[in-house]
Amino acid sequence: KAGVTQTPRYLIKTRGQQVTLSCSPISGHRSVSWYQQTPGQGLQFLFEYFSETQRNKGNFPGRFSGRQFSNSRSEMNVSTLELGDSALYLCASSSVDRGLGEKLFFGSGTQLSVL
Amino acid sequence: SQQGEEDPQALSIQEGENATMNCSYKTSINNLQWYRQNSGRGLVHLILIRSNEREKHSGRLRVTLDTSKKSSSLLITASRAADTASYFCATGLKAAGNKLTFGGGTRVLVKP
Known about the structure:
heterodimer; A: mainly beta; four-stranded antiparallel beta sheet; globular; B: mainly beta; six-stranded mixed beta sheet; five-stranded antiparallel beta sheet; 0% helix
């Protein structure tokens, strides 16, 4: 099985722009989560989608949004980019549907730089 | 805010030695997991221990969980240069879907 695929791998944007990141989970996985990783704040949970519904949301402003499609692929969007949004954005999928905090499979991430 | 705090923040050892890192957390958990990350890449799941378990082994890894102290430890035995990475603990809560809360990580350097 192919792993979790994130595109693009690197992205450079300027302040005020918006960006869309894509994630394809492992085939058969219906849960997709997004995390932001920065040197200062570490790994922080953004949101989780399960069967096209947002099941959980972290403490991020409304500029951060996401969605999940019927094939479980997910996108996250950040509007009106700020310098502080520069980070590694990681997507993870899970095969377990109990929603009890199960093992996650991570993609390689999208490194976003905001200039 | 981070649920888990890891100790030490960095660790440097010689190949063949054991590496031990600790994780403390704040609230009741469903499970605790350990992940490895190589140099800004994605995280790789190492081991999961449930709240009703006290110890678990996987190859050269040994994890303990003490729910009364809200702490866990990860031991890597007979370390190799390839074990050089950052290690993160993550907690899963019963009412939080598949949301995991990660600690700050321990950077491990294994010198050949």
